[in-house]
Amino acid sequence: MSTEESPSATPPTNFIREIIDADNVSGKFDRRVHTRFPPEPNGYLHIGHAKSICLNFGLALKYGGQCNLRFDDTNPTKEDVEYVDSIQEDVRWLGFQWDNLFYASDYFETIYQYAERLIEKGLAYVDSCSTEEIRQMRGTLTQPGTPGPYRDRPIAENQDLFRRMRAGEFPDGTHVLRAKIDLAHTNMNMRDPLLYRIRHAEHHRTGNKWCIYPLYDFTHGYSDSIERVTHSICTLEFENHRPLYDWLIDVLDLYHPQQIEFARLNLTHMMMSKRKLLELVETGSVSGWDDPRMPTLAGIRRRGYTPEAMRAFCEEIGVTKFNSLTEIVVLENAVRADLNKRSNRVMAVINPIKVVLENYPEGQVEELEAVNNPEDPSAGTRLVPFSRELYIERDDFMEAPPKQFFRLAPGREVRLRWGYLITCQSVVKDPVTGEILELRCTYDPLTRGGNAPDGRKVKSTIHWVSAPHAVEAEVRLYDHLFEIANVADIPENEDWKKYLNPKSLVVVPAAKLERSLANAKPGDRCQFERLGYFCVDKLSTPDKLVFNRTVTLKDDWAKLQKKQGG
Ligand code: ATP
Ligand code: MG
Fold it and tell me: Does residue 40 have an active-site annotation?
C-alpha cells in the first residue's frame, strides 16, 4: 500500500480509519482488524473494485490485521470459474495477497442450518405466492404491506416444506423462504425479505448438490460472521440493508461484525457496472474484457496502467460517505506521475513525413547520444542513428504557418531532439494531388547536440526517426469509451450504448519507431517523446510490433512551447 504522502499535501480523508481507531481505543473486537473483499464472480473487476480492494487490504496492512478474499457466489446462473480466476489475478496484480480465500458457497450448509433455526423460532416461513403477488403485497414507501395467506403457516409445516424444497420436490418459483419481520416497517428491506429461492441450476463449485440458493442479503452477513470479520465495508447502496444485516445476526445471537458504508467510485467517461461491461463484451462493442478501453483491471493493465499508479489514485481520492463523480483526469494524472518516473524516453513518429537533408553526406550514419530518462539519471543513455533521410511528424510542418506556429516551415530553422538544427529549403509535392511528399532541408554541421556555436536561438524542438533505421509498428491510440461524462446517470430505460465514442480507438498501422524499440516485448513501457506513454500490447510479436497508448503527456509540451513563444 502506498503510504507515502508529501508532507505539504492534505492527508486524504478516510473516515473508516477513524472508526477503527476508536474501536481500538474502546477495545471493541479486541483490537482486531479483519476485513474482506467480497466480489461476486460474475464479471471482471473494474476500477471501482480497485477502490474497495485498496481500502480493505490497505486497512488490514495498516493495522496489522487480516483481509479475506471471499467469493460471494450465491447466484449459480451468472457465475463462472473464468471470473474466479481473473479476480484473483487482478487482486494480486494490484499488489495484495489475501490471508484466506473463501467462498460463500462453502457456507451453504451452515446457512441452511441458520434458516432452519429461524423457522424453528417462528422467524421465517415458506411463502407459496408468486413473485408478482409477493411484490404487490409488500406495499410501497407510503403504504404498509399486507400479510399473504401463508404468513402464519405453522412451524412444522414450514419445516416440512423447506426440507422438501431442499430435497428438490418443487419446481423453480413455486415457494420461497421469507423472514417474518414487519410488513409495515418503514424500511422496505425489513418487510419479510426473501431468504431462499428454488433454482434448479448447476453451481460452479457445488455442482448439483443444491437446488435452493440463499439470497445475497441472507448470505452476506452470515459469511462475515462465520469468518469473524470485524469491519464489513460496503458501498452506500447497502446502508438501508444494514438493519436486516443486524437483525439476521442478532436473532440467532451470532458474532456480530460492524457494517460500514462508503461512497462508491464513479469516474467520468467510465462505465462501472459489471452487467453493462458484460454486455459490451457480448455484443462485440469491445474486443473483450481486457480491451484497453475497458475500465476493467485487465483492460487498464493491458493498456499500461501500473498497480503503483492505481494504489496512489485510490489513496488520493480518499474514502467518504458522499457519492460524487471523480474526473478521469485525476486517474490519468496518477498514471502520468508514476510513468514519468519509470519510463524511458524514445522517439517515434506516428504520422510521418520524409525529410531529406540535402547537404548531409549520402551513406553517412552518426550515432547520437540520447538521455533515456531525465527524471532518472541511472537510466543512462542510448545511441540513436542519424542519417540523410529522416521522418518527422506531418503536424510539425506547415507550409503557410500562422503567427503562433514555431515549428518547421519553409525558410524556418528548428532543432531535432539530440541532433542538429535543420532549415527547410523547399517542399516536394505530388503534381496531381498537391499533397506534400517530402521536405528538402539542410542541416548545420556545427550544431551537433542541438546548439549553435554563434548562440542563435531556435524556437522549437521536434522529434524524428532516421528513415533507413526505422522500425515499423502498429500504434493504437485510445480515447474515452463513452462520449458523455456522467455515464452513471444515463437513465435505465435509455439505450446507453448510443453514448459509446466511435473514435475511442484509432489504429496507426505503420508508425516509425527508433531502432532501440526493435526488440520491445509485451508489457514493456516507454514514453514516445511528445506523444505520450506507451506500452507493448500483450499480443505484440517481433514480426508485428503493437503499441498501446497508455495516456497522453501532461500538457507540459504545450506550456513549454508557449513559454518559448511557440
Ligand atoms: P457491479 O455493479 O459492477 O457488478 P457490484 O457491487 O455488484 O459491482 P461486487 O462483485 O458485489 O460488484 O463488488 C465487490 C465489492 O466491490 C463490493 O464490496 C462492492 O461494494 C465493491 N464495489 C463495487 N463497485 C464499486 C465502486 N464503483 N466503488 C467502490 N467499491 C465498489
Ligand atoms: Mg454486488
Answer: yes
Mean pLDDT of the chain: 95
Q: Indicate which residue of 32, 264, 354, 538 is catalytic.
A: 264
Ligand 1 and 387: CB distance under 6 A: no
Tell me, what's the pLDDT at 562?
Answer: 53
265: CA distance to ligand 2 center in Å? 14
Does 135 participate in catalysis according to the annotation? no
Tell me, using a 6 A CB cutoff, whether residue 241 lines ligand 1: no
Q: What are 129-174's pLDDT values in tens digits?
A: 999 999 999 999 999 999 999 999 999 999 999 999 999 999 999 9
Q: Looking at the domain assignment, is residue 495 inside a domain?
A: no
- The Cβ of residue 107 has, within 10 Å, a number of other Cβ atoms equal to 21
pLDDT tops 60 at residue 206: yes
- Pocket lining: 175 vs ligand 1, CB cutoff 6 Å: no
Let me know if residue 384 belongs to a domain.
Answer: yes
Task: Please tell me whether residues 273 and 199 are part of one structural domain.
Answer: no
**φ, ψ for residue 67, nearest 5 deg:** -135, 130
pLDDT at 509: 97
Element (H, E) at 559: helix 556-563
Tell me, yes or no, whether 158 and 254 share the same domain: no
Active site residue 521: no
Residue 5 has pLDDT above 50, yes or no: no
Sheet of strand 532-536: strand arrangement: 345-346, 525-528, 532-536, 546-551, 471-478, 505-513, 348-349
Cα distance between residue 440 and residue 254, in whole Å: 83
Please provide the distance, in angstroms rounded to a whole number, between the alpha carbons at the two ends of the chain: 42
- Output the pTM of the full model: 0.93
Give yes or no: residues 85 and 223 share one domain: yes
Cell, residue 461: 524542438
Considering every ligand atom shown, identify the ligand nearest to the alpha carbon of residue 40 and give its number: 1
Strands (E), 193-330: 194-198, 212-214, 231-235, 258-262
Q: Can you tell me the mean pLDDT for 301-330?
A: 96
Number of domains present in the structure of the chain? 3
Percent of the chain with pLDDT over 70: 96
Length of the chain: 566
Structure confidence by residue, pLDDT tens digits, 55-77: 999 999 999 999 999 999 999 98
Picking from 3, 21, 20, 23, the residue whose alpha carbon sits closest to that of residue 12 is 3
Ligand 1 site, residue 145, Cβ cutoff 6 A: no
Print the domain residue range for 119. Answer: 109-216
Ligand 1, atom 27, lies closest to the CA of 48
CA dihedral 115→117→118→120, nearest 10 degrees, is 130
- Could you tell me if 131 and 148 are in contact, meaning their C-beta atoms sit under 8 angstroms apart? no
Report which secondary-structure segment, H or E, holds 439: strand 436-443
pLDDT at 564: 46
